[in-house]
From TrEMBL:
<dbReference type="InterPro" id="IPR000120">
    <property type="entry name" value="Amidase"/>
</dbReference>
<dbReference type="InterPro" id="IPR036928">
    <property type="entry name" value="AS_sf"/>
</dbReference>
<protein>
    <submittedName>
        <fullName>Amidase</fullName>
    </submittedName>
</protein>
<dbReference type="InterPro" id="IPR023631">
    <property type="entry name" value="Amidase_dom"/>
</dbReference>
<feature type="domain" description="Amidase">
    <location>
        <begin position="26"/>
        <end position="440"/>
    </location>
</feature>
<dbReference type="Pfam" id="PF01425">
    <property type="entry name" value="Amidase"/>
</dbReference>
Length: 452
């Protein structure tokens, strides 16, 4: 086995497959062996799909020899969060109440990936039905955050296994979902790149839902170029042209509303150092308020969030019928939506489009709105199981900044922006709905600047 395969980007692996330097079957076998060696307890992968993966790799190898590759990522092995349906293979979304659930078909986005030649390595761990930004799962165990060797800390969620599969070299990329930050949070806490796509860009058909009006599909990767190519494949669109990406002439708003109140001062200092690099690369950085950020959070505090409301409709009855089938604090978060009034819920949904309109007005003239992805370092895992109030406080902290993009319908990336106290921090870049192309080009330029 070539020792650096597990450290390479998906596009670099694809390029070597194209040149005949890597055989997809050998590559897939190497990843499956690494999974067996590095994840014996199944805290990252809840199940691998070895037979499927090797069959897909064999077909990719034949296409590579014949010069009929389907995409630049044909033959590259990736992981899938365990809420994406896989035909004939259990998809349980991290919940005991769904134990033994076996779909009859693949999720639509997995079908698109398979048609492009990507190899499905298996299904990655997650909290019950994706309702936690911390990433812990009481049933399957929780993979540790890789940046603390002394205390087991959460990796971030809910795409926890997806992030860990990439950072440990157990997949070239991971596919996750993001309802309030579930791609960006683990990307930030694990030092990866994450993309929250605009709701509706990538099909949700065949995914286990949490909040159908908020759920989105997105990649967790080693760099922006991989995120760009994978998103294009899953969405059925052309990838953005990242060549010559630059920040020259770009206006960036460093949001103060909410962010100044919540972000740890040391993390904010790290973000500011990153923004200085973006400034040196040609961007104009302006600090200023975005009042609608606070207003949308205040409205949700009064009338509920879509994830609470829709999750209550989808899962509360099942959780009550089977009290041992869902992690208690998650179930009780769903039950809390019983107290929301019908007029309040209707009012919330009516207000969201107006909030988005106001966001666009308040940020007009800026190419990006930027801030920290997560306000604090990842907490230790054990105390979260001992104190439910502490768990709920930590869970809200984890999504406190990322959920803004979901509630306002934006697209957003999280980019590695250095380390604070030994932990990676993420810089979140937000753009208006369906401006993924522009967001990815500017994220590529920002990535280059942050690495300088």
């Amino acid at each position: 086995m070539t020792n650096i395969w597990h450290e390479m980007t998906a596009l670099d692996l694809g390029s070597q497959i194209e040149r005949g330097e890597i055989d997809p079957v050998e590559l897939t076998t190497a990843f499956l062996e690494r999974i067996a060696d590095h994840d014996p307890d199944g805290e990252i992968y809840v199940r691998t799909t070895g037979e499927r993966a090797l069959g897909e790799a064999q077909a990719a190898a034949l296409r590579a020899r014949n010069g009929t590759r389907r995409s630049p990522l044909d033959g590259v092995p990736i992981s899938w969060k365990d809420l994406f349906d896989t035909k004939g293979i259990a998809t349980e979304a991290g919940a005991k109440i769904l134990e033994g659930r076996i779909p009859e078909d693949d999720a639509e986005c997995l079908k698109r990936a398979t048609r492009a030649g990507l190899v499905c390595l298996g299904k990655t761990n997650m909290p019950d039905v994706a309702f936690s930004g911390l990433g812990n799962n009481a049933w399957t165990g929780t993979g540790a955050n890789p940046f603390d060797k002394t205390v087991k800390r959460v990796p971030g969620g809910s795409s926890s296994g997806a992030a860990l599969s990439v950072v440990h070299g157990l997949a070239a990329a991971g596919i996750g979902s993001d309802t309030a930050g579930s791609v960006r949070i683990p990307s930030a806490w694990c030092g990866l790149t994450g993309l929250k796509t605009t709701h509706g860009l990538i099909s949700l058909e065949g995914t286990v839902p949490l909040s159908p009006s908020q759920d989105t599909v997105g990649p967790l990767t080693r760099d922006v170029a991989d995120a760009n190519m994978i998103t294009a494949i899953l969405a059925g669109t052309a990838p953005a042209d990242l060549r010559g990406a630059t920040l020259n002439g770009t206006r960036i708003l460093r949001a103060t509303t909410v962010f100044n109140d919540l972000v740890d001062p040391d993390i904010q200092a790290g973000i500011d150092r990153g923004l200085e690099k973006l400034s040196r690369a040609g961007a104009t950085i302006v600090e200023g308020p975005v009042p609608v950020f606070q207003e949308v959070l205040d409205r949700c505090a009064e009338q509920g969030t879509p994830a609470n409301i829709e999750g209550n409709v989808l899962w509360a009855a099942m959780a009550r019928q089977n009290p041992d089938g869902m992690f208690g604090p998650i179930a009780r978060r769903f039950f809390a939506a019983d107290e929301f009034s019908a007029p309040g819920i209707v009012g919330l949904y009516m207000s969201l489009k107006d909030f988005t309109r106001r966001y666009l007005q308040e940020t007009a003239g800026f190419d990006l709105v930027v801030g920290a992805t997560v306000p604090e370092a990842p907490p230790a895992l054990a105390p979260l199981y001992e104190d439910e109030e502490l768990y709920l406080k930590a869970a809200l902290m984890s999504i406190s900044l990322t959920r803004l993009a979901n509630l306002l319908g934006l697209c957003a990336t999280s980019l590695p922006a250095g380390f604070v106290g030994g932990f990676p921090i993420g810089m979140m870049l937000m753009a208006p709905p369906f401006q993924e192309g522009k967001l990815l080009r500017l994220s590529k330029a920002a990535e280059q600047a942050l690495a300088s």
